[in-house]
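Our platform keeps sequence and structure together, in a single record for each protein. Because each token names a local backbone shape, the row as a whole describes the fold. One such record is reproduced below, unchanged from the form in which we store it:
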Amino acid sequence: MKILHVEAGKHYYGGARQVAYIIEGLRQRGVVNLLACPPGAEIGRAVGDTAAVHEMKMRGELDAGMASRLLRLIRDERPDVVHLHSRRGADLWGGVAARLAGVPCVLSRRVDNPEARWQVALKYRLYEHVITISEGIRQVLLSEGLAPERVSCVRSAVDAAPYLQPVDPADFRREFGLPADALVIGIVAQLIRRKGHRYLLDATAALRARYPALRVVVFGQGPLREELEAEVRQRGLADVVVFAGFRKDLPRWLGGLDILAHPADMEGLGVSLLQASAAAVPIVTSRAGGLPEAVADGVSGLLTEPGDVPALTAALDRLLADPALRQRLGQAGRARILDEFSVDAMVQGNLAVYQKVLGGRR
């Protein structure tokens, strides 16, 4: 079996890492993998030893030429299945290219934002099957008219091994310039509006008087960085909030957090939450999209309604005040990740979809 994977993202964020897990797992099962990605994309370097990487221009939904470039690659390489892993035009033009080449196409859907029923009716004709990374996303598609037999949930996974090593609290605080007695909340997400950074800033402003040692470490990069930094200064939180940027060595440090906060308005599943649970960090997040699947309320973390700042503040307050509860939720979260979110299960789930699609074609 030969699979052409298409990933339009340039950075090695959660979605791209999932693609790398899939490619490596498929290779171990004897599957030949090709990857189409933009020039210089980090995933191209990450999977260079396990897939034939084809770099090409991918300029988004207005780049109709992407269809012809992918069509040429499909005709040259003749894959059995084209698997589209991202949006940014790759979903549309990749589907068009596969249809013109007569090759079955599978789409991975990683976000839960709604689409109009007429859009679903037209666009999703391009795909033989859709894989959602959470049941929440699957339910969104079903509500928009996609037939149940054409969509399957295969949850994202996390390679827990790098997150199982203990983190020395003193080393962690030195690395990020924090006081020795700091109580540390972290957020690991792109700096974009739907991730809810502003809700966390609101909660931080409300909690700082009760917890003078409170610090917030913001991991990630994105278009809102300057705006968020300005807001932190304006609100007098510059001594509390640290912007750490995108860290390739995140597995080394994630376990140093006391709490991971993720107050997103929309989220497919939240790979950073799975990583935090693997690192035995308790989580406060929202009941948005697939987040209730990533975090079991009262087991591995606490859930609040999206945008409810008082509830977010109360949940963080509860954990900050109770070290024993933080430890219990963190340990339960690690056990849950090891039991339910393995890379092997995710790879096997994707492979089963390919086999189903090809069996249907025959």
About this structure: The chain has 15 helices and 13 strands.
